[in-house]
Amino acid sequence: MLKTEMRNPKTIHIDRMTTAEMLRVIQEENHNAVKAVDACLDAVAKAVDMATEALRNGGRLIYVGAGTSGGAEYVLAAIEYAKSLGCATVGITLYSSVETSPPLYFLPQRTQRSQR
What we know:
This protein is mainly alpha-helical. The chain has three helices and two strands. It has a two-stranded parallel ribbon with strand order 1-2.
């Protein structure tokens, strides 16, 4: 299992923390995320330069959001961000109960039997 998909041991009992403790843990984890980006800034800069060049030459930027928690928040964030830039948007999710503005396409969820 990827580390990003594992439960964070620092937040297992977040529901039992005081508000101040909870905020300290969240802030510490936010700092860890920033530090992780620091380690790959050169790669991020290269990707931005490549995207900029592609856009200047008539190419397209495809912004993708994905999530595993079941709420489709990242798909919705990708759609809203792209729309704010005046881009065409298409979202795909398994959850038909999500409130969205069109277009958002829903795929039927697999049952245990259909996954075999």
